[in-house]
Design brief:
Elements lengths: L1 E5 L4 H8 L12 E8 L20 H29 L4 E8 L2 H12 L3 E5 L13 H9 L3 E5 L11 E5 L4 H12 L7 E8 L12 H32 L6 E8 L2 H12 L3 E5 L5 H10 L1 H7 L3 E5 L3 H4 L3
Parallel strand pairs: 1-2, 1-4, 2-3, 4-5, 6-7, 6-9, 7-8, 9-10
Antiparallel strand pairs: 5-10
Helix pairs in contact: 1-2, 3-4, 5-6, 7-9
Length: about 325
């Protein structure tokens, strides 16, 4: 497994790393790359490069600033890598720094490195950190080609076992999320719960006064509820079959309402450490639109960590 960790030295980045203890990741057999990006576009000169005789005004100062920023990025990446290595002594951990636009550089490197999972903090050091989900994390969440784990501090039941909520809606993306959760190494006593949000058919109160329409709506709702219950039970069984630890409790529940609200509320009441949700398999532009309304909304509102699960093409079509 290859875990790519975006690290900017902020408290949220540290929280995201610390939260990996309860993410069900294996104790060994993992490569981790910790990357920090210096937000400068003029790279510092190479060690053997001298300033030109007629350098433009301000070039020297700009390069000195760039060198300082990149030194900070280097030190941050090393701190992040050391933090990861202390938590997971058997992982192979490396650190890198680069310059440029953080989201762009992080996405490109994660794609080039063929990461299986990208880990980001919920906010960061930029001015955008006052938003619920930082702009860099939001861009990575919606544009990455692989799974993204948004780490948060608050949440969890405080017990030794993990509590995980997996949102299921019958789509291919949610089935991928179920399989991903089943592959993790959860500790004994963990509880995994399938949650299906039944967003019921809504009608005007006036139309409800017309008996034929009212009866039709009730029939449709009853049928949808039955289908949701079947979906939840089927997903729970698939999850149970995929786990390699019998000391893990698997349950399922169907709740009425909008998935964006149901999953967040249920996870908080359940004391969840993380919400797993699938991403769609549509085109990039449409996927971003859908993520903006469901998965990204959950990632922005949840009190706990959120993992948006995608399957890389290499995993879908192994050679």
């Amino acid at each position: 497994m290859k875990v790519f960790i975006a690290y900017d030295g902020s408290a949220d980045a540290d929280i995201a790393i610390d939260g990996l203890r309860r993410a069900g990741l294996p104790a060994d057999g993992v490569e981790a790359l910790v990357m920090s990006v210096g937000e400068v576009w003029l790279p510092p000169p190479a060690s053997d490069e001298s300033e030109p005789a007629h350098a433009p005004h301000g070039l020297k100062e700009s390069r000195e600033h760039a060198a300082e920023v990149m030194q900070q990025a280097h030190e941050a990446a090393q701190r992040g890598a050391n933090r990861v290595q202390q938590m997971f002594p058997q992982w192979h951990v490396t650190a890198e720094e680069n310059n440029g636009s953080p989201a762009f550089e992080l996405l490109n490197r994660a794609e080039e490195w063929k990461a299986d999972l990208i880990v980001v903090g919920s906010q960061g050091l930029t001015a955008f950190s006052r938003f619920v989900l930082g702009s860099v994390s939001q861009k990575i969440l919606t544009e990455a080609s692989t799974s993204v784990h948004v780490g948060r501090e608050h949440g969890g039941s405080g017990t030794s076992g993990q509590r995980i909520v997996i949102g299921v809606d019958g789509s291919a993306g949610s089935r991928v999320a179920v399989r991903a959760a089943a592959r993790r190494k959860w500790t004994a006593g963990s509880e995994l719960r399938i949650v299906v949000a039944d967003d019921a058919l809504k009608t005007s109160p006036i139309l409800r006064l017309v008996p034929p329409i009212s009866d039709f709506v009730d029939e449709v709702r009853a049928e949808e509820w039955t289908q949701s219950e079947h979906m939840a039970l089927e997903a729970a069984q698939e999850l149970r079959d995929g786990l390699d630890n019998e000391d893990i409790t698997v349950s399922s529940v169907v709740e009425m309402g909008d998935p964006k609200q149901v999953l967040v509320k249920h996870a908080e009441e359940f004391g969840a450490d993380c919400i797993f949700t699938g991403a769609t398999g549509f085109s990039t532009r449409l996927e971003r639109l859908i993520l903006g309304s469901v998965s990204a909304a959950i990632a922005a509102r949840a009190h706990c960590s959120v993992e948006v699960v995608r399957e890389r093409e290499a995993l879908k079509n192994p050679q």
